[in-house]
Amino acid sequence: MFERPRRGERAIIVHVGIGRAPDRDAREEFTSLARAAGAEVAGSLDARLSRPNPRHLVGRGKLEAIRALAADTDASLVLVDHALTPAQERNLERVLERRVVDRAGLILDIFALRARSHEGKLQVELAQLEHLSTRLVRGWTHLERQKGGIGLRGPGETQLESDRRMLGQRLRQLQSRLDRLARRRELGRRQRRRAELPTVSLVGYTNAGKSTLFNRLTDAGVPVADQLFATLDPTLRRLELPGGSGCVLADTVGFVSDLPHELVAAFHSTLEETRDARLLLHVVDCSDPARSERIAAVETVLAQIGAERLPRIQVFNKADILAEPARIETTDTGMPRRVWLSAASGEGVDLLLAAIAEFLHQDRVRGTVRLGVRQGRLRAVLYEQGQVLAERTLSGGGWELEVELDRRGYEQLQRREALAFLEPAAGERAASLI
Ligand SMILES: Nc1nc2c(ncn2[C@@H]2O[C@H](COP(=O)(O)OP(=O)(O)OP(=O)(O)O)[C@@H](O)[C@H]2O)c(=O)[nH]1
Ligand SMILES: [Mg+2]
Predict the structure, then answer these.
(1) How far is the CA of 207 from the centre of ligand 2 (A)?
(2) Residue range 303-314: average pLDDT?
């Protein structure tokens, strides 16, 4: 439905700085984004503006320079590292006689290229259409129009009206399909909650090494690439932790600064996987010169999706590049706060596993339960969810188990299965009071 930038399409980049020169990291990142979208970067120039011009973003002189560069380099696309209003985008296209794409448009485009799963594709299309709908003022000049589709155009309707109507229909259709998928996803999450497997979710800036770490921890074989937004679809795997407990580890889409809000909205159900997690592992490329800006950008997106309050452990990945030793940093109360490691070499990954286990164990309860012969199923549940420390077969049939499990899991089993820890014997209680 869309006219995508073709692979290898020649583009020039306009780096924009408001009140100052565009900074080097932002420039590098935008160039990587352009390449990730498949563009061949034929040239670039800086635009330092005291304030954005409402008509063309840049002033007359700069506009002329952009046009000249585009002509010299034979570029058919102009990528602008700044948000453009629909009017600015249109005005620029008119003057430059080329397609103009802003930062949000570029990111949407990369997502469109990368989307693999059914849900991912629907989410991207929804985001793109939302993005477009604000730009649909004077016909779909950017779109390859599907001419003459049956039932697409009513008599007497202008092109714009029928386009709007079509867009509205498609948006509603996408939304309802996504809602259905979201419900299925929610069901999966509820099942996991019932099984009381805590979800630990990897979050972080794109290219920080989340998938590399995920593979290292789970042998999942998720594709890893030195490119932005290699991962779009969440992958979940069970992860065994030291001490015999387990959790579900989630690898998901990476973040970037100024992630288009249409994308955040469209990827709502994917991101919910993150919001529902018990613990976030915030993966940071510690060798990135813009490390602290990246961390802040991730925090911003986490706040956007309502995950800002979730506990997290920072993972300073790629420690090998800085030749930093693998280690754990803890808070004043002794909880793991940051782990330096290398997902690529595997050094320090054991420290992270220990940190996750320690974190999740905080909220664990331990006790002894007695099960009757008919409670074999409950016994299996305890083996699945918890850690069985000791088991004794009772002479009259049934079992006595010493188990440790997640507090929420225990409370649920208390409610559903009337499971209860035995009161410690008088002697033991006295002992534990000492
Ligand atoms: N030197 C070094 N490189 C690493 C390390 N971990 C990951 N990388 C590299 O960093 C790049 C990005 O890795 P990914 O695992 O795809 O990153 P990601 O965070 O999943 O990225 P997106 O899915 O795009 O958000 C790849 O080229 C990896 O090989 C590490 O510990 N050390
Ligand atoms: Mg990834």
Answers:
(1) 7
(2) 87
Question: Is the model more confident about 207 or about 431?
Answer: 207
Read off the pLDDT of residues 353-384 as tens digits, 9 standing for 90 and up: 999 998 888 777 889 999 999 999 999 888 87
Question: What is the per-residue pLDDT across 124-168, written as a single tens digit (0 to 9) for each?
Answer: 888 888 888 777 654 444 434 444 333 334 444 566 777 778 888
Kindly give, in sequence order, each residue whose CB lies less than 8 Å from that of residue 364, ignoring residues fewer than 6 positions away. 245, 404, 405, 406, 407
Question: What is the CATH code of the structural domain delimited by 197-361?
Answer: 3.40.50.300
Give the CATH fold of the 365-433 domain.
Answer: Alpha-Beta Plaits (3.30.70)
**CATH number assigned to the domain covering 10-111:** 3.40.50.11060
CA of 141 relative to ligand 2 center, distance in Å: 34
For residue 419, which of 375, 387, 384 has the smallest C-alpha distance? 375
Angstrom CA distances, 162 to 139, 150, 180, stand at: 10, 12, 27
Q: Is the CB of 231 under 6 A from ligand 1?
A: yes
202 lines ligand 1 (CB under 6 A): no
